[in-house]
Design goal:
The chain has 13 helices and 2 strands, in the order H-H-H-H-H-H-H-H-H-H-H-H-E-E-H. The protein has helices spanning 8-34, 40-61, 66-93, 103-123, 145-157, 195-202, 206-210, 246-255, 287-299, 342-349, 373-381, 393-402, 433-443; strands at 410-411, 416-417. A hairpin with a 4-residue loop joins strand 1 (410-411) and strand 2 (416-417).
Amino acid sequence: MLPEQADILWTFTTIIFTLFSLFAFINVIQNCRERAGTNTVLWGSVFGAGFIINLLLTNHMFDLTQQEQLGFISWQVLAVFLTLLTWGVFFKSENIENQSPPLIRAAFFYTTISILLAGYTNWLPQQRSDPPPKATIPTGGVESMDAYTEMGRVIVFGSAPPVAGQKSIGKGQCPLCHTFDPGDNIGRCPNLFGVEERSHTRIKEDRYLNEPIKIGEVDGATGIVKGKPDEVPEEYRRADASELTGEDYLRESLMCPSCYVVKGYGKAGDTKSPMPVISKPPISLSKFELNSVIAWLQSKDTPGEFASVTIPLPTGGEEAPPADTGGGDVEPPTFVTGSEPIDVMINTLGCPLCHTIPGIEGAVGELGPKLHEKINAPNRIKDPNYKGKAKTGRDYVKESILNPNAYIVFNEEAGEPFPEGVMPQDFANKLSVNALDKLVDFISNTQPEG
């Protein structure tokens, strides 16, 4: 129940109170007309006033919030109690108490039960049911390190503040694979708790210096020179990048994941990272965004303290993200219409983060199965473990987009199924009908190159 709303049970109860007072008024008038000598005007006025008072109280109750209703309901309970008491006096004064309707006793019982039930439900701890807040990214200047690191957190998790019980994933897509709290590990990528401290010791380890490539060698996939911050692409390079630091390690791990692969979390003998390059599509973080993520990683384990942050606040307006064209600072939801080129559609939806997709440049993700669906889809339908409803390869592809958990592909290389629940479940809200058909047509015809 939201505190800003009216309580349904109290609202229902107050309506019944008004109807009850109306019944009492009608019953008294009927009894007065059946008996000579009864003061119809007096009793009619008394019970008519009781009905009007209850009606006004009910009308006012509709304008109150739940919290306000809790304090106001006592007045209506008092009004109904006085109505019942006066009704009893009426029957007693006319010596017809043996003819009082059972509704009087029923009303006492109903009122008692309703008040006890309503009081108990409102005594229980209340929980908001608001939808998750939209992710926001500042569009103006950043005046404090607190605001700067908060921007990095929003890029990682998406919602601000975090929503209890819900998996928040921001533009950076980090929570798909990483965890951030001590003792929490989903097994796909390293836990990032304590990463700031590790960043300083890691660059001194022999394994970092020589594996999978040596300091000074170029990573073929990204063009990054390992361990050389002064040779990072200029648009991402830090000022005075003459000496390798922990900050440079964090930046390198984001821009060149395979320059160093944490033991046990890579492919091909820990020489290739499954992590996407976040400075390239489909994530494409700008220097401003990437640096804010690094600042957050450096400070996240010491909330409110920023002594470990080595990235200075941005001072040049050219570093700030462009203003939102929608007139606010809320990122619009992802949606493709089908009019976009297929590679733009796929990158917008973030498919290359997890899948290798032939024909799409840079789509070399390995968290999910390779999309060779011209061959794979018909075979998976025949799999005894397949419990979906598809009859054709095209139907299978469509089902796997709209209902990813209908069939979990087995990862032959790892000897176990791919992780369930990694692929978003809301693509139906991100695709128009035309876009879905266009995407299904393309993926249905993907096959290994050559």
